[in-house]
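Bench notes, afternoon.
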Amino acid sequence: MTSAYLCHRGMLGINSYAWMMQLLTEMDGFDSTTGVLVLAATNRPEVLDPALCRPGRISRRVNVQAPDLEGRKQVLAVHMRSIPVEQDPTILCAVVASITPGFVGAELANVVNEAALLAARQGILLPQI
C-alpha cells in the first residue's frame, strides 16, 4: 500500500477512490479472532484518510525515527555492497553518514546510486569486487 492510494478522498482519482473503498470494506470484514495483521507504512501520515485510522482498521501508529550516525553507516554499507569503490568502504560509509544527518534509508540509497551514476558518466571504471 502506498499513501498515494490511501490519502484523503478529495485528493484521489476515481480508480484510487474505488481501490481505497474496497480496501476499507475488506478490512471491515476481518474478524478480530482470525489473526489477520495489517501492517502499513507511509512517510506522509498527514494525508491518510481518517477512515483508515479508526479502531479495528489501522488503529496503532509506530513512529520510526531517521537512523542515527551508526544506523546510517549500516544502511550505507548495505547499499554499497555491490558498488566497486577505490577506498575502504567502511571509511566511505563513515564519511557519508557523518554529512547526512536526518537522511532515511531511501535517501541514503539514492546518494549511493547517484554517486555510482556520476562515476559512470565520468568514465570512472573500478574493478569489480
